[in-house]
Amino acid sequence: MSPVRTFVTAVATLALASVPAFAQPIISAKSGVIAGVEGKVLINDEEVQQSVTHFPEVKENSTLRTEDGRVELMLPPGFMLRMGENGSLKMLANRLVDTRVELQSGSAVVEVDQTSQDYNVNVALKSGVVTLSKVGVYRFDGDPAQVKVYHGLAMVQVGGQNVMVGTGKMLSLTGESTTAEKFDVEKTDALDNWSRRRAEAM
Predict the structure, then answer these.
(1) What is the pTM of this model?
(2) Diameter of the chain by CA atoms?
(3) What pLDDT is stored for residue 31 in this prediction?
(4) Residue 22 DSSP one-character state
(5) Partner of 2 at 20 to 30 A CA spacing, among 22, 43, 171, 201?
């Protein structure tokens, strides 16, 4: 084997070894499987125990909450939700054809890397309901309530209207306005950066 091929093989082996066990592909018939945990995360006030062989599930009407931790939650295939510290969400419906979550507090990023007409994914936040059907990266914040589209296109039901929010735009979900505004997509925080690192690892 040539020295170059030996080096490439060694690098690939080290790269695979550095990926956490919970980054391995997981297949589920429902939304709501926890793919990864960092720090203290709870389902219905019971702490989630991280395991390389067991992946807890957030069932319908259950609440997922973080304290000093972060969590990755699988929605339908191609949809990954990552919630930061001091966040809370409720699983309203966990069928692949009808996935609905409500962000009750904190912040979350939803990354969509593939879509299907068979999947319907909605995120409720305050007075708005956001439908995600396009590949992209979407940020949800509870205080103030808003959705940001780093890349992609979201349809938002708010104030009795349907508003399309595209790349580089944000929309308040307090019901006071239905006009999307520009924001700086280069301005990120710890949750955005962690979500990007996790996406690259997976």
Answers:
(1) 0.84
(2) 66
(3) 96
(4) G
(5) 201
